[in-house]
Amino acid sequence: MATSYLEEKGYLILQRNYRSGAGEIDIVAQEGDCLVFVEVRARSSKEYGTPEESIIPSKAQRLIEVAQGYLQERGESAGGWRIDLVAIHWRGDLYRLHHIVNAVTGDGL
Description:
The chain is α+β, with helices and mostly antiparallel strands and 109 residues long. 22% of the residues lie in helices and 46% in strands.
């Protein structure tokens, strides 16, 4: 669902479920000249908070470390990348997708 959405928006999906010693990131994509790391979060109720609220500072820091590990593995430069969030809100068979560009920054959230 999230990959289809991103592809429709013109993103090129490079990898899914990238894992490193620091953790995992759901999607690695290219948007123009920018490398985009995408975390996908879904919730069917607000009992445990919204998908957006699930990116706590420690999770944000791990995502940054995973992205940096990806860049190091591939010898990529540190410029031209960001971390987005695709939040999916479920209600039965209906869903709403919320894409937050640059949701995680070098300072965390």
